Amino acid sequence: MNTIRRNYESHAWCREAVDELRTKLRQAAVGSDIGIPVSPAGWWHQYVCPEHHTELVFDPMERDAHVFRCPYGCELAGEPYRGAWLVYRHQENAREALSAAAVYAATGESACADLACGIVEAYAASYPRYPANPDAQGWMLRGTVFHQALTESIWAVSLLRAVLLLSDGGVDVEARCPGLPLFLAMLEERTGEARRILVEERGDARNNYTAWLNACLSAVYAVRGDGRALAALLETPGGLRDHLSIGVLADGFEFEGSTYYHLFVLRAYLIAAEMTERLGTDLYAMTGTAGQSFYGMLLAAADLTAPNGELPALHDGPYRRVPFAREVAEVMEIGWRVYRAKPLLPVLRQAYAQANGAPRREGLEAVLFGEGEWECEAPFSENRLLSDVRGSRLYPDAGFAVGRQAGNPLSFVLDYGQHGGSHGHYDKLNLVLMHEDGFIAPERGMVPYGSALRHAWYSQTASHNTVTVGGRSQSEHAGVCLKFETGADRTYAWARSEGAYEGAVLDRHLWLSSGWLLDWFVVTLEAEDTVDWWLHLLREAPEETGASEKADGPDGAERAQGLADRDIGDAVQVMADYAQIKAERLAAAESAVVFRARAGDDVHGLAREIAIHALVPAGSELYRIQSPGTSLDPARPMAGLLQRQRGRVVQFAALYAPAGDSAALCRISDTEIEVRGTNGTVAVRLAEDGLLVRPAMSEAGNR
Fold first, then answer.
1. Over the Cα atoms of the chain, what is R_g?
2. How many C-beta atoms surround the C-beta of residue 12 within 10 A?
3. β-pairing, 517-537 with 75-77?
4. pLDDT band at 663 (very low <50, low <70, confident <90, very high)
5. H or E stretch including 643?
6. Are 374 and 386 in contact (CB under 8 A)?
7. If DSSP states are collapsed to H, E and C, what string results for 81-134?
């Protein structure tokens, strides 16, 4: 009995998920008259509103479309939007085929087998009539149905997985789909040629494309039952073993340092492993030359997350997107099934929450890859950590430092390392501040690449929680971690950048105790200049505790109305270097100021508040700012703080602590800060070898 049928007969979650898939297939109303678009598709990244920079709306029930709408009501027509919409339509058709095959695998319903075979044959018969895509951009590996061979591989894998499921259930797919052999032959030829160009002509075997071209070819060979061809593919230059060695760093993270592309590549690896398993070879324990492994990649992703399982959108990748959530669910379901690693469960649970609106095991990914009982549906507030408490972790090759401390709801990711190539950002020493309830100061993700804000804002330094010098973005470079210490009472990370600006040394010190996080940033320049320190907040707390005013977002979700929801007017002149920023200068402050923020996206007032204590030296300027929001909705502004200082050596110090704690921050001298918290008062001294922390005089009687 296949796993899907066994789950269907044994587990209520699977029966409910299959019933939901069946209902959606009926609603799609494709019936037996299978119609697919006759036009090749474009590039999905161009499916974006040029005004609001949000992804355009795609309705999977709409079989054809010529007018495309953004969540704010803009209507667009023609190219490139039609071609981009066709990407979604072709991909959704393949997903429908796979959904129908999954329902057939669970129930044996012949109508579902008919539907899946009909979609497969429609594409198999049409594929020879598609020319090599004439509108692909010059840098792309040209596809047939799509601009890119990469997109074609992802689409084809869904169709071929459907074929395999149908065959598993006894369907003679080749008899039902006479165009399948030619489709497989042409797909193998065109995918193989794209792979040859990438690996041999361009010498770029470690590209994330390679992993997906391998996955597509693996699926072709699995459908044919050609174990010899698949074994040869795995061991060639750029094959699975080689790609794992060159495309993944020794610390287990994909070389571009992008959370999205890390999981994108891992998903392709797991597909290749799935196909080889069908032909009798188990690759789930495969290792690269530096010990890289699928299991290590899973843990590398899980160890980055906030306590509630949210993944920080480091470098290029969406802040939040339903198709990505589905991909994460697929990867984590497979990882849980194969390795039984508990740290994956919060990530899996969060993926289902984002895909389905609640942490329920449902949808196509649940049916295909889920196994056993589902025990992760308790509310987040009652079940924050489903795994053992994770400690801090350093990623020495990717260049991330993750800080966690027992008893502290706050945690952080410090990005100091490699730029990330074409998917990197100018963001060294960027801080992602997290809480049990979710993000406080997030990495806001990347809009679709067709948006002008991709380069104008989202990859630039000012959109990150770091510093800029002279109003300019950093240069492409990598920083270093000078210290990373963990213990029962603290996690300490010290990272340095010497390549961001000529003649500049940037040092960021993060000290996480059981009650607070101290953030001490020192900038040393060869010549006096203006230095700006940025902190972008996902949600500021309302000015009055308990404020209940609401505003609707374009995704239909309510959100608490905070300071970011009020227009603060045009950018003041001092912000001329930052076209995307609106700023309001705050009145001259005392030596320290306190702001409040809330963690996560909870709109029902349950998320706890965080106090941000910032030292404001004499002569510095403090601004409340608004800027384009997360990539989910750039038109919904994020609030934030900007502190500006001018000098040759400037310092910024902030303390983050749960609101209501008796925390305070006081500067004693240029090299000493006093931190008062619920567990006592400590003196923090900035020395040549980093931060030194000890009880303050008032606590110990002497220093």
1. 26
2. 10
3. unpaired
4. confident
5. strand 638-658
6. no
7. HHHHHHHHHHHHHHHHHHHHHHHHHHHCCHHHHHHHHHHHHHHHHHHHHCCCCC
Residue type, 645: Q
Please give the structure tokens belonging to residue 69. 């709408």
User: What percent of the chain is helix, strand and coil (3-state, nearest 5)?
Assistant: 35, 25, 40
Beta bridge partners of 55: 48
- What φ, ψ does residue 315 adopt, rounded to 5°? 55, -155
Specify burial of residue 687 (Cβ count, 10 A radius: 0-12, 13-18, 19+): exposed
Residue the block writes with tokens 């794209």: 194
Q: Which amino acid is at 219?
A: A
Averaged pLDDT, 122-137:
87
**Beta-bridge partners for 252:** none
- Tens of pLDDT, residues 234-248: 999 999 999 999 999
pLDDT value, residue 362: 95
Across the range 536-543, mean pLDDT stands at 80
The pTM score is: 0.93
pLDDT tens figures, 31-79: 446 778 988 999 999 999 999 999 999 999 999 999 999 999 999 999 9
């792979």: which residue's tokens? Answer: 195
User: How far apart are the C-alpha atoms of 427 and 538, rounded to whole Å?
Assistant: 18
> Which tokens belong to 656?
């983050």
CA distance 88 to 271: 21
Q: Which two tokens stand for residue 22?
A: 């069946």
- What is the arithmetic mean of pLDDT over 415-425? 93
From the list 3, 16, 9, the residue with the least C-alpha distance to 377 is 16
Contact (CB, 8 A) for 221 and 192: no
Q: What tokens does 633 get?
A: 């909705």
Spatial contact of 40 and 190, defined as CB atoms under 8 Å apart:
no
Q: How far apart are CA 119 and CA 96, in angstroms?
A: 8
- Residue spans of beta strands (DSSP E) within 319-446: 393-395, 400-403, 410-415, 430-435, 438-441
For residue 690, give the nearest of 488, 514, 467, 518 by alpha carbon: 518
CA 221 from centroid of its chain's CA atoms:
31
Q: For 476-541, where are the E strands, in sequence order? A: 480-486, 491-497, 504-512, 517-537, 539-540
> Closest Cα partner for 455 from 53, 27, 3, 16?
53
Q: Which domains does the chain have, with CATH numbers?
A: 396-700 (2.70.98.70)
For residue 563, what pLDDT is reported? 36
Structural contact between residues 449 and 423, judged by C-beta atoms closer than 8 angstroms: no
